[in-house]
Every structure is written in structure tokens, then in C-alpha cells.
């Protein structure tokens, strides 16, 4: 049938809900490892360029990662205004560090990732994402459990960015989506520091985790802002949550943001400017209502259990 030609023989199926699969057509596998923590693929996709996939969950792809990493990083940096010390929890692709390094004020970036094999593979295969960030003298990469680092660090951080894989059951990250973890993060932040977390999908049938995460961040920080960005390869629009003792202006002046970016960064942003930030902060009514009505928060005793592990496989037939 015209317009329906299938181009791949190998598919990575990401299970989105018990009833929905996003099948990404793969043209080549660049790296595969079963590490001590997870199963990793770095693949070349037909549509979205190179992608990192952990335990079958899509992490990011070169074709649309800017729609994830710019929103993850830049609102927190803008809210702080002149961050010098930035802590990244997760962030194996190096794209989060890349975004942090756009700021002229940044003196030190520490990235904590539990899985050195994943970081090494990203460094080797995903130069489009890290763009040399791992070699910047301001960046220190530590292969360590984030919880251990937070217990041990005596440094104080201006911005803390939680760029963790989704909290699937049995995965390495679910403890880091809890109130106890956010309290530990707050203890290592400067008094006027800013925390941001990648906070799950916000499609109507999947948004419960985002809603509960926002309530969990609200249990620890005085001021919280939920916001979203549409990352097409994620299958759903994606949520983030900012937390700080600083008030957060949900209607930032686009011209003031553009001036701040021009003055304090080296430029290079593709999606985020003042207008885009203003738009991202305008959360739809059904999400605002769900956050207002939610009573459950995530704790170590009752952590989130994100749905789905994916699977890779050959197509049974072509065309
Ligand atoms: N860097 C971690 C980002 C995790 C995003 N997961 C997306 C899953 C899409 N269904």
C-alpha cells in the first residue's frame, strides 16, 4: 500500500503502557552491554539518529534530545541566574553537562553516574550529544551511587540536576525519586539553590507519576514549578519539576529571559528562549488540577514503579 513501506528489520519496542508500544526501527547496533546495573543499547535509528536505550527504556536520541536536555537544564540555570557549582545526578550521555557548560558563571560540574560502562559507551559513540563536555576541565565524572555521594559530599551546590533513567521496578534509579532522596539533595544545596528533576510523561493516561513527583518535590521545597516539553521519540510529552527556596515566576518576561541568556551564556540553544520558557511554564488545566488534588507522595517505603521494560527483536516480515 502506498505510504506504508516498512524500512527496518530490527525493532526496539518500548512498552509505554500495558496497551501501547512505541517501536523504533533500528538500522544498526553501535554498542551493546549487559552491565552490573542494566542492559544497554546504543543504536542508530532510521528516524531519530543515534539513541541510548537502557533496560528497554528510551533515554535520548540525537534527533530530538535538545527538546529534553535544554528544558531539563536551562530553566534551573536561569532561575539561579549565575550558578557556579552544578551537580548532575545521572546524565550519562553528557548532554546535560553540555547544557550546563553554556553558562559563563559555571566553575565546577560534578556528574555522578552509577554505571561507568554506560558513560564510557556514550563518550565513545554519542559525541553529537556530549560535544566534548567530558573533556572540559570544569567537569568531573564520578562513577558512584548518587545516594552515597549525597551522604559524603561536603560541597554546596547552586544547581542540582536529576537526570536519571525512569524509575522502573528493579532498575537502578527508583530510590532517587523519593522524598528522602529530595531531602538529601536539599541538604547539599546552597540556601538559594535550585533543584530540577526529569519527572516523567504527562500524557493523560500516564501522568500519575509526574503528578505525584511534583507533590513529592512540594513536600521538600517551598516553591515548585511543573513544566513540560514535547519530545517526540518519548511517545508522550515529558514533565519536569523545579524546586527551590527561591520564588519561581510562572510568567517570566520573554525579553528579560532573552537578555539573561545573551549576557550569561555562550549561546547555541535551539529550542529554549524567553518565549519558549513562558510557554513551557503554562501547564494545562487537567495537569494543574491533578497536582492540586493529589495526596500521595513517593517515599522509600512506597517508591514509584514506572511501567515497562522494552525488548529488541527482528521483524517477522518486511513490507
Ligand atoms: N536521561 C533520562 C531520560 C529518561 C527519559 N525516558 C524517556 C522514556 C520515553 N518513553
Describe this structure in words.
With 319 residues, the chain is of the alpha/beta class. The chain has two domains: 62 residues, Spermidine Synthase, Chain: A, domain 2, CATH 2.30.140; 228 residues, Rossmann fold. The protein has a seven-stranded mixed beta sheet with strand order 8-7-6-9-10-12-11, sandwiched between helices. The chain has a six-stranded antiparallel beta sheet with strand order 5-4-3-2-1-13. Strand 11 and strand 12 form a beta hairpin. Helix 8 packs across helix 9. It starts with 9 loop residues before the first strand and ends in a 5-residue tail after the last strand. The mean pLDDT is 94.
According to CATH, the fold-level topology of the largest domain is Rossmann fold
First-residue to last-residue Cα separation = 9 Å
Element-level helix/strand string: EEEEEHEHEHHEHEHEHEEHHHE
Could you say what the CATH architecture of the largest domain is? 3-Layer(aba) Sandwich
- CATH first level of the largest domain: Alpha Beta
Stretches where pLDDT falls below 50 for ≥5 residues? none
Q: What number of domains?
A: 2
